[in-house]
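queue> pop job 88
queue> type: inverse folding (structure -> sequence)
queue> payload:
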């Protein structure tokens, strides 16, 4: 049996004031249990790095991250602190064994106003459809 993973690793540079807000929000999220899966948390692992006067939030997922939840969290941060800035996150979908169609990934572009997604699976499906061909499966 193979294991599937969704992994990412990005950082968000903060001011000390922003770090206080981020910590409070993430600690709240750590206590909220998801009704469907029974797990608490924001959907990703997090840690503070840097120095107290120049903190950095490291958002990452070693095995099973939720890139969508990370995007919505960062969007809330941008709405509060950085209305004219953007954040990017790319992820990899991997498998512990080379199983067919079990590898992919994508990217997210986040602003205070919108979130845009790109998935390798949907991009490939769009290409097959646009060229009016069948995939070689």
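queue> result:
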């Amino acid at each position: 049996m193979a294991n599937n993973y969704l992994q990412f690793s990005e950082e968000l540079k903060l001011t000390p004031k922003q770090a206080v807000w981020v910590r409070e929000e993430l600690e709240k999220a750590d206590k909220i249990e998801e009704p469907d899966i029974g797990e608490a948390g924001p959907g990703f692992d997090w840690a503070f790095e840097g120095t107290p006067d120049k903190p950095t939030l490291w958002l990452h997922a070693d095995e099973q991250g939720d890139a969508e939840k990370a995007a919505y969290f960062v969007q809330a941060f941008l709405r509060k602190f950085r209305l004219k800035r953007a954040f990017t996150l790319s992820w990899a979908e991997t498998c512990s064994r080379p199983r067919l169609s079990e590898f992919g990934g994508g990217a997210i572009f986040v602003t205070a106003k919108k979130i845009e997604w790109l998935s390798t699976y949907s991009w490939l499906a769009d290409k097959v459809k646009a060229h009016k061909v069948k995939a070689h499966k």
